Automatic annotation (TrEMBL), chains A, B:
<feature type="DNA-binding region" description="H-T-H motif">
    <location>
        <begin position="35"/>
        <end position="54"/>
    </location>
</feature>
<keyword id="KW-0238">DNA-binding</keyword>
<keyword id="KW-0804">Transcription</keyword>
<dbReference type="GO" id="GO:0000976">
    <property type="term" value="F:transcription cis-regulatory region binding"/>
</dbReference>
<dbReference type="InterPro" id="IPR050109">
    <property type="entry name" value="HTH-type_TetR-like_transc_reg"/>
</dbReference>
<dbReference type="InterPro" id="IPR001647">
    <property type="entry name" value="HTH_TetR"/>
</dbReference>
<dbReference type="GO" id="GO:0003700">
    <property type="term" value="F:DNA-binding transcription factor activity"/>
</dbReference>
<dbReference type="InterPro" id="IPR009057">
    <property type="entry name" value="Homeodomain-like_sf"/>
</dbReference>
<keyword id="KW-0805">Transcription regulation</keyword>
<feature type="domain" description="HTH tetR-type">
    <location>
        <begin position="14"/>
        <end position="72"/>
    </location>
</feature>
<dbReference type="Pfam" id="PF00440">
    <property type="entry name" value="TetR_N"/>
</dbReference>
<protein>
    <submittedName>
        <fullName>AcrR family transcriptional regulator</fullName>
    </submittedName>
</protein>
Amino acid sequence: MPSSPARHRRADARRSRAAILDAAVQILDARPDAGMETIAATAGVTRQTVYAHFPSREQLLLAVADRITEEVAAAIDATDPQAGPAADALLRLLDASAQTAHRYPALLQKISALPVSPQADHDRHSPITERIGQVIERGRQTGEFDDRLPLGWLVAATVKLAHSASEERQAGRMSSQEAEHALRTSVLRILGAAPEEDGSSRSR
Amino acid sequence: MPSSPARHRRADARRSRAAILDAAVQILDARPDAGMETIAATAGVTRQTVYAHFPSREQLLLAVADRITEEVAAAIDATDPQAGPAADALLRLLDASAQTAHRYPALLQKISALPVSPQADHDRHSPITERIGQVIERGRQTGEFDDRLPLGWLVAATVKLAHSASEERQAGRMSSQEAEHALRTSVLRILGAAPEEDGSSRSR
């Protein structure tokens, strides 16, 4: 298909959208209240272009949230979550998620305060929750995890505990190491898995 | 001490504040976007009086949140949380909290979307988290719960799981019964307690 002016415009629009989101992720984490103007300048576009893509600050923040979600999903995939014992895979997945999320502490705090409906919030996290669900489901099938509680609940509980660990850590109530240990132990307990110490020695 | 005009004014102010909060709890749960005027009318005060107590809608909603927190704390105290096995006491406490919170589904959803700092949110919930902490601490001392994870973490995890159960229930992803069962089972697993079936037969 020959390139057309319309296709060029669409490609340009995609590039400026990506540049704006890159700039927003960087700037808003360092300075959560930075203005659209600063973001535009860093992205090398006009303020008007920022508003053309994101009519409100809230819409920009939601797009930033989706972008961080994608980044977390990619970090999860890089841990090869379908390999090895499910308990180990889940712990790798949680570590990778936490490491990615902890790159943006101030930004995620800002995003979590956005007025989003619970259903929308649930849907926005589906790239992550689906991956967690796949690992837990695999562990149920191999008998590593017990299957008496509904899968959806176990996924929701795992996510909540991961958020709790991040909050305790960010508020300075627990060290990173304490929070990580508490999270791992608690998730494995809820899943009815062997204690972490034994996790790696379990066969598939 | 003889009554003075100033004391009268303070007593009047307390009464109108209470009337406004009563009205706000009722009205905002039925119609979360109801205006300050409707709340004033129901409370039998002027709009001006509402604004004198609560300069912004956000401040009114936070005061409503604190009031619901007090109501939950009173419901917890009514379950006599220091009596009997700690696991039973904790489950009674969670039931009472959920029953109280479920009276205000729409309002709590609105409140949870308020832009409040994590530390402020943590502090606002202290009447509830302190009570949960006391029961868990008692269970650790009697040996019902294991004490390898920090108390603060166990309290935070319990609260998160209770929120998760409410969300699953309110989103229609679980029935009340399923959510209650999943919550009880999960909390007792994290605490390292015996499964619920055996909970009531454990001695102190």
